Each structure stands twice: as structure tokens, then as C-alpha cells.
Amino acid sequence: MARKKQYHWGIIDKAKNKLIGRTGFIQWNLEHERTEIGFALSRLYWNQGIITEATRLIIEYGFTHLGFNRIEGRCSYNNAGSARAMEKLGMKWEGILRGQLKMKGEFVDQRMYAILRDDFDSVNNSSTL
Ligand SMILES: CC(C)(COP(=O)(O)OP(=O)(O)OC[C@H]1O[C@@H](n2cnc3c(N)ncnc32)[C@H](O)[C@@H]1OP(=O)(O)O)[C@@H](O)C(=O)NCCC(=O)NCCS
């Protein structure tokens, strides 16, 4: 299968000068001005707000510099940390994609989240009032 083009930004532990994770755009559709985020972080650093902080910048960049209208995110149904991170990013839960992935021979459901440019603008405009 052909490799997909993706854009990732590395997340660094500055004190240790060590790469600890990544966040970025894992696919996009320019005709519909839509993209999807994906992220991962070393377990040692979980639950410190790192992915939320880094991905907030990616989302801002996607809306203000790349001109996207919709930014999606998906995670396995049981991935509570990832779901919570997307909620903290202002993404709205849109439903369940049933049997979306085949993992270790089992079909698993995914949660679908998204944020629209209008959602992003309304939060940012109200926070600067
Ligand atoms: C998912 C992941 C990227 C989150 O990164 P992170 O930096 O820990 O995320 P944040 O700290 O910004 O936010 C995580 C939130 O989930 C919450 N959380 C974590 N595990 C949870 C659980 N089992 N149940 C409920 N909430 C949970 C945290 O408390 C935090 O919320 P809070 O700030 O309100 O307390 C990281 O855990 C990871 O790399 N997991 C493995 C790879 C992965 O799942 N990638 C995503 C695939 S889409």
C-alpha cells in the first residue's frame, strides 16, 4: 500500500533535549478544506496537558494560516485520554464510527470529533473581549 503523506511536529523535552511525542495533520482534503489531526506521546509524559497544548497550536495554524474549515480527530472508543484531549481542544463529539478499524484481528469502533472554523473563531473572539 502506498505511504500516506503526513505532516508531524515533534514535541521535545527541552531539559533532556529528547523527542517525546508528535502532533500534526495525518490526512486532508483540499477541495473540502478539511484535515485530520493525529498525535502520540511517550507514556512517561501523559496527563500533563502536553498534547492539548501542542495540538492547540496546530489547530490554530490550520485555521489561520492553512485555511481549513474543518479539523477532525478520531480515536478508539476506549481511548479516554485521547477523547478528553480532543474535548479540551474544543472539538465536538459527532458520533461513533462502527467497526472503523481492524486491530489485532478485531474490528473496533472509533469516536469522531471535529472543530469548525466558526467554532474556533467564536471561542477566540469571545476570549479577547
Ligand atoms: C492520548 C494522548 C495523546 C494524550 O496526551 P496527554 O498529553 O496525556 O493529554 P492531555 O494531558 O493534554 O489530556 C489528557 C486528558 O485525558 C484525561 N485522561 C487520561 N486518561 C483518562 C482516563 N482513563 N479516563 C478519563 N480521563 C482520562 C486526563 O486526565 C486529561 O484530562 P484533564 O486535563 O481534564 O485532567 C496520550 O495519552 C497518548 O499518546 N496515548 C497513546 C497514543 C494515542 O492514543 N494516540 C491518539 C490516537 S488518536
Task: Pick out its properties.
single chain; 129 residues; alpha+beta; Aminopeptidase; 6-stranded mixed sheet; 3 helices; 6 strands; 27% helix; binds coenzyme A
Describe the structure.
With 129 residues, this protein is of the alpha+beta class. It has one domain: Gcn5-related N-acetyltransferase (GNAT) (Aminopeptidase, 3-Layer(aba) Sandwich). The protein has three helices and six strands, in the order βββαβαββα. The protein has helices at residues 50-64, 80-88, 117-127; strands at residues 7-13, 18-29, 34-41, 70-76, 92-103, 106-116. Strand 2 (18-29) and strand 3 form a beta hairpin. The radius of gyration is 15 Å and the shape is globular. The mean pLDDT is 94. The chain binds coenzyme A. Coenzyme A (COA) binds at residues 38-41, 46-52, 75, 79-82, 84-85.
